[in-house]
Amino acid sequence: MKKTTLIACIAFIMCGNMFAQQEKGIRGYNNWLNPWTEFKPNNIDYGKPTQILSGNITKNTKLLKRDVYLLLGDVFVTDSATLTIEPGTVIIGDFKTKGSLTISNGSKIIAEGTSTDPIIFTSSRSMKKPGDWGGLFVLGNAPTNSFGSEAALNYGLKSSVSKTLSYGGNNPDSNSGILKYIRIEFAGKRTKNYGYFNALTLAGVGQQTIVENIMVSYCEGDSFNIMGGKLILDQMVSYKSSGNDYKFNNGSQVWIANSLAVRSPYVSGSDVSRCIYVSDYDVKDETDFNKEQTFVAAANLTLINLSSDLNHDIKLGLVNEAIYIGADSSFSLDTSVISGFNPAVILDDKIEINQENLSKLKFARTYFNNCKGNIFRNGFSNNADLENWYGSRAFDNVYSNGPDSETFIDANNKSRPDFRLRINRIIASNDLIDDEDDD
User: Fold this and answer.
1) What is the spatial distance between Cα 399 and Cα 401, in angstroms, rounded to a whole number?
2) Average pLDDT in the 61-71 region?
């Protein structure tokens, strides 16, 4: 009996170690992108609007699946009202008025779709394009690193009450609602004076807010823009957006896990865009350094640049770094995959390479694949010190030059891709048994 038990324990440990070694990038026993994501959204007819949303929503309101809603101009949920959206509901952003939806500070959104019935935000046009409409803003009263307790959203939104656009406060545990199983397509309108809108902006949003399973596709601005606040993000997807996939700024405190960014060298805006952009401020003089500065802890991310000829695209200047980290920020990346970038990571030139700064910038157990350089400092041709530091055994990073077809399970499937890592035909997973919670 003891011998049998010992053998069973050894087998379990060996099996566990086998899976643990492959736990890089997005994970799951099943491909959790199925069935709620959509990689060809322009082929779907969501129907004609039957209801119009405009102006201010000042009382508790529920949007029903049986209707299709048109966002006409800038729409605001105010006066501590709660906007509830049924699973499967379609909300269309008007192209002519560049419709947008803002959940003001103190109000809530309960948009809880399901894996089989996600909530859809999309364009009103039959031939949809990036930037067709505005985007979704959620404003809360969690802290930022700006002077004072509040800041104002500055995107040119037309609100009758300036208070509607304020965010930030002193409650990191605040609750702005639920965002779960949502697709946001073709957002990111361009403005003359304020740049591009983002698909989803979370400004001063607290950690009691649930943000899970959100896919942004073909956005002209940033897919996810986090301005201050304290958040946990899980199973997020950014697909072929022109701006940054994930932007963290203004003292945001974020834990992001099991999330995906897919870039294309043929889809980009006029500015350099990355999978992850980490910054502490836009204007240093407006930052209160007595407060918490931007901190991002990321694990099990897959950041991939889909290119049919990577070397050619790099020569043409179409491929940038996957991650950019600004001064005075803290960032850690663990058990992740970065594939097909030039280079993988760039640190701002204001970051001095010393023990204090390197202790705030951690890259561990990460798989660097097909990257022209790994971790560089902006403007410096000799980055051997960084390459040697993060290439040491202590960080357990892995470096490879494998094609996508051998690196990922099915990255080139146009309808139902699978971006989980494949090493020696072993799928990256932390689940030894299938369960219903893993969609």
Assistant:
1) 7
2) 98
> pLDDT per residue over 162-219, tens digit each?
788 999 999 999 999 999 999 999 999 998 888 899 999 999 999 999 999 999 999 9
35 prior amide bond cis, ω within 30: yes
Q: Are 88 and 122 in contact (CB under 8 A)?
A: no
Give the rounded percent of residues in the chain with a pLDDT score beyond 90. 76
**Peptide bond just before 118 cis, omega within 30 deg:** no
Check residues 246 and 23 and name the one with the higher pLDDT. 246
Q: How many residues does the chain have?
A: 439
Separation of alpha carbons 38 and 128, rounded Å? 14
Cα separation, 266 vs 243, in Å, equals 12
Give the amino acid at 418: D
φ/ψ of residue 339, rounded to 5 = -135, 120
- One DSSP character per residue, 295-322 reads EEEEEEEEEEE--SSHHHHHHTT----S
What is this structure's pTM?
Answer: 0.91
Tell me the C-alpha distance between 338 and 260, whole Å: 10
141: three-class secondary structure by DSSP: coil
Distance CA(327)–CA(295), nearest Å, equals 12
Decide if 111 contacts 65 (C-beta within 8 A).
Answer: no
Q: Higher model confidence: residue 429 or residue 6? A: 429
From residue 345, how far is each of 145, 333, 386 by CA, in Å? 25, 11, 11
- Give the DSSP per-residue string, 330-393: EEEEES-EEES-SSSEEE-TTS--SHHHHTTEEEES-EEES-SSSEEETT-S--HHHHHHHTST
Beta bridge partners of residue 211, listed in sequence order:
179, 233
At residue 163, the pLDDT reads 80
| In contact, 242 and 256? CB cutoff 8 Å | no
Q: What is the token pair recorded at 83? A: 């906007």
Dihedral sign of CA atoms 34, 37, 40, 45 in order: positive
* Range of lowest pLDDT (17-26, 29-38, 74-83): 17-26
Beta strands in 222-285 (DSSP E): 224-227, 230-239, 246-249, 253-263, 276-278
Res. 428: pLDDT tops 90:
no
Q: How many CB atoms lie within 10 A of CB 388?
A: 9
Contacts for 416 with CB less than 8 Å, ≥ 6 apart: 31, 33, 34, 39, 410
Q: Which residues, other chains included, contact 351 with Cβ-Cβ below 8 Å and sequence gap of 6+?
A: 325, 326, 327, 357, 361, 377
